[in-house]
């Protein structure tokens, strides 16, 4: 087998993160987005000893796990690569892949509670981040998601089913508006152009919608007629704000040099387990509201009795978890790096009548060691990269009785757990919760307790 060879094989198994593999002539061939049981044709990109990296060019036979995908964009859009798999099978695969990662790190004999699925598997997103671009080089303006396996091509996802009808209407209106005005998208390689991203947030319970258009400052078109058009759009929800964010940064992520409010306000209100949360344009909030309620209930359950306990909520975002457990805690202290989110967390606590919560803006690695309280319980919900080793050391040095680790990346979770185990903690129980149907993502919650000497 050599580079550029076309090979045919059956996908034997999947791994966390959308990877899959099969074998041919004693070589393990790794591909992206294969489904267990599929017969595929692939092109070899790299080969080293008995390991190869390949790209699927055709699915020759569907897997017995597959059914007809319902979304028109399935296969073309890079968003949901598991949509053709029955949901029960998606859950089983995700759980098995997380357990495999635990075992690879020697984390055996874990008391696993069964995985839970999202209450709804379509129309579940409360936030969508679309990119402007073109479907093929020089093609018409597109607004949507990156094409599967392509960095630069964009698929207009105007019929996407993981978001609801209001998102589809807003996307179509904005795309049509800029297509008619012939306003160019920002070319991320050449760094020229205007339109970059469109971020839409819609609260599940209140129906409030916030639209944020992200552009460069390279052009200054008058977009007041777009705001008027959106105001008159018939939506099931309620458009409470339209923002215009300017971003001249070279990196292709949504960030703000300056944000103007063109209509209404710059936040929405969402509810979770009876509490209210103000969500600003740039703060983290779980993207599947109904599943997040299940996730937070699992966390509350794992925490057990927090009466008269001091709880640290590290990487707290808008303070959701901390506030959900605050009613039966003595004190909650949250740390979060995004200042806007901390501001919202403080406002949320006031909104919810909680006076035992304190939120600190800053890096956990810097701030946690400055706290003058000794925690009984520590909640950890870090970003995908996991916890910085220095910060983890500081967390361990508090000697808290219980730690609840909530993770969106089991690969970094198992590394951190290994350190916690070797520092005197034991895994009491673990559970996976699916927040992202049809994608490869999965949330894992682990309860640890300190082994007493
Ligand atoms: C997975 S989110 C969890 C948010 C929150 N617990 C929730 O459920 O909504 C991770 C959060 O960590 C924050 N973050 C990332 N790096 C951080 C750091 N070094 N120190 C503090 N917060 C950080 C992010 O801004 C984000 O809000």
From TrEMBL:
InterPro entries: MeTrfase_TrmA_AS (IPR030390), MeTrfase_TrmA_CS (IPR030391), NA-bd_OB-fold (IPR012340), SAM-dependent_MTases_sf (IPR029063), TRAM_dom (IPR002792), U5_MeTrfase_fam (IPR010280)
Residues involved in S-adenosyl-L-methionine binding: 286, 315, 336, 381
Top-rank lineage group of the source organism: Bacteria
EC identifiers of the protein: 2.1.1.190
Keywords tagged on the record: Methyltransferase, S-adenosyl-L-methionine, Transferase
The keyword ATP-binding is assigned to this record: no
PROSITE patterns per record: SAM_MT_RNA_M5U, TRAM, TRMA_1, TRMA_2
EC supergroup of this enzyme: transferase
Family matches, as Gene3D superfamilies: 2.40.50.1070, Nucleic acid-binding proteins (2.40.50.140), Vaccinia Virus protein VP39 (3.40.50.150)
Active site feature: 408
Keyword Cell membrane: no
CDD domains (UniProt xref): AdoMet_MTases
Gene Ontology molecular function: rRNA (uridine-C5-)-methyltransferase activity
Residue intervals of the TRAM domain: 1-58
Annotated GO biological process: rRNA base methylation
Family stated for the protein in its record: Belongs to the class I-like SAM-binding methyltransferase superfamily. RNA M5U methyltransferase family.
The name this protein goes by in its record: 23S rRNA (Uracil(1939)-C(5))-methyltransferase RlmD
């Amino acid at each position: 087998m050599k580079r550029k060879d076309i090979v045919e094989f059956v996908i034997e198994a999947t791994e966390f993160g959308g990877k899959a593999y099969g074998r041919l002539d004693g070589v393990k061939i790794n591909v992206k987005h294969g489904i267990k049981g599929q017969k595929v044709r692939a092109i070899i990109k790299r080969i080293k000893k008995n390991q190869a990296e390949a790209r699927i060019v055709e699915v020759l036979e569907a897997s017995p796990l597959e059914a007809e995908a319902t979304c028109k964009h399935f296969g073309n859009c890079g968003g949901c690569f598991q949509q053709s798999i029955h949901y029960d099978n998606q859950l089983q695969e995700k759980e098995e892949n997380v357990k495999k990662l635990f075992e690879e790190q020697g984390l055996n004999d874990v008391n696993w509670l069964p995985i839970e699925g999202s209450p709804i598997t379509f129309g579940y997103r409360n936030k969508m981040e679309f990119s402007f671009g073109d479907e093929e080089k020089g093609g018409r303006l597109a607004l949507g998601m990156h094409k599967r396996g392509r960095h630069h091509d964009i698929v207009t996802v105007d019929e996407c089913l993981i978001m609801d009808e209001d998102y589809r209407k807003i996307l179509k209106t904005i795309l049509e508006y800029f297509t008619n005005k012939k306003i160019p998208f920002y070319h991320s390689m050449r760094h020229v152009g205007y339109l970059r991203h469109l971020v839409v947030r819609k609260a599940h319970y209140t129906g409030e919608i916030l639209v944020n258009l992200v552009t460069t400052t390279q052009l200054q078109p008058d977009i007041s007629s777009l705001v008027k058009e959106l105001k008159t759009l018939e939506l099931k929800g309620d458009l409470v704000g339209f923002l215009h964010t300017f971003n001249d940064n070279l990196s292709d992520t949504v960030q703000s040099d300056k944000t103007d409010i063109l209509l209404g306000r710059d936040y929405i209100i969402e509810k979770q387990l009876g509490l209210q949360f103000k969500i600003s344009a740039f703060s983290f909030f779980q993207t599947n509201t109904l599943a997040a309620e299940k996730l937070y209930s699992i966390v509350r359950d794992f925490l057990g009795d927090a009466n008269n306990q001091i709880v640290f909520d590290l990487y707290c975002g808008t303070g959701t978890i901390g506030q959900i457990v605050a009613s039966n805690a003595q004190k909650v202290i949250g740390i979060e790096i995004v200042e806007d989110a901390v501001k919202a967390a403080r406002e949320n606590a006031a909104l919810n009548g909680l006076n035992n919560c304190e939120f600190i803006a800053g890096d956990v690695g810097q701030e946690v060691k400055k706290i003058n309280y000794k925690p009984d319980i520590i909640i950890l919900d870090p970003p995908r990269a996991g916890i910085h080793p220095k910060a983890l050391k500081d967390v361990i040095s508090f000697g808290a009785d219980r730690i609840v680790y909530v993770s969106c990346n089991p690969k970094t979770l198992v590394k951190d757990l290994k350190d916690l185990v070797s520092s005197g903690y034991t895994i009491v129980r673990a559970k996976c919760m699916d927040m992202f149907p049809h994608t490869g993502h999965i949330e894992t919650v682990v309860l640890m307790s300190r082994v007493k000497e």
